[in-house]
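User: Hey, quick favor. My workstation is busy. Could you predict this chain's structure for me?
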Amino acid sequence: MTSIALAVAGSDSAGGAGIQADLKTFAALGVHGASALTALTAQNTLGVDGVHVVPPDFVLAQMQAVARDLEIGAIKIGMLATSGVIEAVAEGLNYFPGISVVLDPVMVAASGDILLDKDAIATLKSLLLPRAVVITPNLPEAAQLLGTREASSEGEMRAQAKALMALGASAVLIKGGHAKGVTATDLLLDCEGELRLEVQRVKTRHDHGTGCTLSSATAAELAKGASLREAVTTAKAYVTGAIAAADQLHIGKGRGPVHHFHKWWPRG
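Assistant: No problem, here it is.
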């Protein structure tokens, strides 16, 4: 049976992040991708020029349409933009009982552009955080969710992950890509304890869509039946390979995308 995952997220007109990155990741990992668009962005590798939020009732309609027809194995949630969209997505999840949800709390683009209204953070925490099998914040996102400063050490990352679990998250994969150092370390805290995922940091400016790719890769593996720890381990390896191969691509004038199909495309 074909594994299917649903991405609920915004669109990236340059194709490097958001729904486009999610669907590329699903395809690369052998999973059929369905989608529910929450927002359209006018953006490229240099930044975000504009955001058009999809009406919440139409976000819900997309999720309902998918639920009526497709056997979804996992759901990845990304950019949500407003409280109204978050409320619609929370209602939409009722049509997917028992399905694993990966929540990537997208708040700010790599360019610094705001992708989630500040007054929507509380709605995200109350309606979606407790319903996810795992949330995948980077360091700035974890700090915003907790209303504190960014973690600057693994000890602080661990403490913030525990604080997010105390708010209702079942598991937290806190990503250390924004930290300094020769290695990039992510920490997964779940009911089993802690899993440390460390790789050599790749020197490249082409890392657009990294967070979207990691969360959608995790959802793809969950859709195929992997355990959470298996899923995040495979996802970390996949995104590391995609970053390492990013310089093979020549896309845009700014921060280009990671190479989602690095295992299949010829080197160029």
